């Protein structure tokens, strides 16, 4: 195995250990193993860095030459020759680099059946590509493809292979540099994963299996809260926990909901022409799902933008009426639920959470949703780049104060409503 292949294999094994962890102790042990890890954990990417920067530099100079026409004649002539013959060398280089990348990932592909070493497979990939680019039709395909690229990038404004080629070089070099940045900082996302698992362990939470879009559709059939946006709707996080209160005990699910609003807007292009384009805005909602056997068919909406059906109800509290819009299947349901104590409790929650919604469906299931930051968020000082300090930090017992506060408030609602009426 090459050095980079060893690094990839070591990182893969590390990820597997983290995902297999069943306790905080397992996470700490895995982190501490990095202090004196037997194999390499950092990639050697200098050749790739040269390639990425070379492509970006060549593309940038080419664009500058196209629009400024101020480069020295000799340099501009050399650049034009390099770019003209790019129809031969660029596809070969891209395929060879792509094969090298696959080799580092241990994915040699079908070429492994006929060629034993990575060098032989890269040479074979380059040779096959060279045969293709030397065919008479290739030049036409290549330059027309670059015109199509500029047509797509400009939104139909213009098509030019002279601009398309520098764009291709910039995009290719940018992808290489971005991927190298991710490889260099692979510890950061893995540290975030460890931190999340630690938070789940510390707070008795368990990740549930689900399919984002299907789960959002299922919840949308139970709660109006999830009928938002006109494009994408998906559940991104779903965790199960249990709350043991003094009077009530209940299971709950903690989730993050993502939805997209698609709209069309008008803009003016560089030539002064009026055009339209589709814009998608993403929004996120967080909340709890649990069974609430003390009421049903009721919604309290604090300006969240969702639409709820039922009979409108107004309380004697002007402050509450200014914040919440109340709908119920029957007016008596809202009247019995909204006692003065519950009204005060809901006002306190409205002061803490952004655009809250409390919805109890006909089956007695409750959804409390809001637009604040994720209550699972927990900041860390260290990460895997400092394994000793990070292990000590993870070893502490960290509780989610925001989650505990929310659960206490839900328990308080149960306490205030458990004797209001019988179902």
From TrEMBL:
<feature type="transmembrane region" description="Helical">
    <location>
        <begin position="122"/>
        <end position="143"/>
    </location>
</feature>
<dbReference type="Pfam" id="PF11335">
    <property type="entry name" value="DUF3137"/>
</dbReference>
<keyword id="KW-0472">Membrane</keyword>
<keyword id="KW-0812">Transmembrane</keyword>
<feature type="transmembrane region" description="Helical">
    <location>
        <begin position="163"/>
        <end position="181"/>
    </location>
</feature>
<feature type="transmembrane region" description="Helical">
    <location>
        <begin position="77"/>
        <end position="101"/>
    </location>
</feature>
<feature type="transmembrane region" description="Helical">
    <location>
        <begin position="50"/>
        <end position="71"/>
    </location>
</feature>
<protein>
    <submittedName>
        <fullName>DUF3137 domain-containing protein</fullName>
    </submittedName>
</protein>
<keyword id="KW-1133">Transmembrane helix</keyword>
<dbReference type="InterPro" id="IPR021484">
    <property type="entry name" value="DUF3137"/>
</dbReference>
């Amino acid at each position: 195995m090459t050095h980079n292949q060893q690094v990839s294999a070591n990182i893969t094994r590390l990820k597997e250990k983290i995902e297999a962890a069943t306790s905080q102790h397992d996470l700490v042990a895995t982190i501490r193993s990095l202090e004196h890890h037997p194999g390499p954990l950092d990639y050697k990417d200098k050749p790739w860095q040269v390639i990425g920067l070379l492509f970006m530099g060549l593309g940038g100079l080419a664009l500058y030459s196209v629009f400024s026409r101020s480069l020295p004649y000799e340099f501009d002539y050399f650049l034009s020759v390099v770019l003209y013959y790019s129809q031969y060398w660029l596809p070969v280089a891209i395929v060879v680099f792509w094969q090298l990348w696959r080799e580092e990932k241990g994915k040699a592909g079908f070429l492994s059946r006929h060629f034993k070493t990575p060098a032989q497979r890269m040479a074979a990939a380059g040779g096959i590509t060279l045969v293709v680019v030397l065919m008479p039709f290739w030049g036409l395909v290549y330059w027309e493809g670059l015109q199509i690229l500029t047509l797509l990038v400009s939104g139909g404004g213009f098509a030019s292979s002279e601009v398309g080629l520098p764009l291709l070089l910039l995009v290719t070099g940018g992808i290489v540099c971005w991927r190298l940045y991710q490889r260099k900082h692979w510890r950061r996302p893995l540290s975030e994963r460890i931190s999340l698992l630690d938070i789940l362990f510390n707070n008795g939470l368990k990740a549930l299996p689900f399919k984002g879009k299907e789960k959002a559709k299922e919840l949308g059939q139970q709660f109006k809260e999830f009928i938002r946006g006109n494009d994408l709707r998906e559940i991104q996080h779903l965790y199960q926990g249990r709350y043991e209160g003094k009077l009530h005990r209940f299971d709950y699910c903690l989730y993050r909901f993502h939805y997209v609003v698609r709209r069309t807007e008008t803009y003016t292009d560089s030539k002064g022409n009026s055009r339209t384009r589709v814009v998608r805005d993403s929004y996120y909602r967080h909340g709890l799902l649990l069974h609430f056997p003390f009421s049903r068919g009721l919604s309290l909406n604090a300006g969240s933008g969702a639409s709820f059906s039922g009979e409108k109800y107004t309380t004697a509290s002007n402050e509450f009426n200014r914040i919440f819009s109340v709908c119920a299947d029957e007016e008596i349901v809202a009247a019995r639920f909204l006692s003065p104590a519950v009204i005060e409790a809901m006002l306190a929650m409205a002061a803490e959470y952004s655009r809250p919604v409390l919805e109890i469906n006909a089956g007695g299931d409750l959804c409390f949703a809001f637009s604040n930051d994720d209550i699972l968020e927990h900041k860390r000082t260290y990460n895997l780049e400092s394994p000793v300090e990070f292990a000590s930090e993870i070893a502490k017992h960290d509780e989610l104060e925001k989650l505990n506060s929310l659960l206490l408030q839900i328990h308080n609602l149960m306490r205030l409503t458990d004797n209001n009426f019988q179902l």
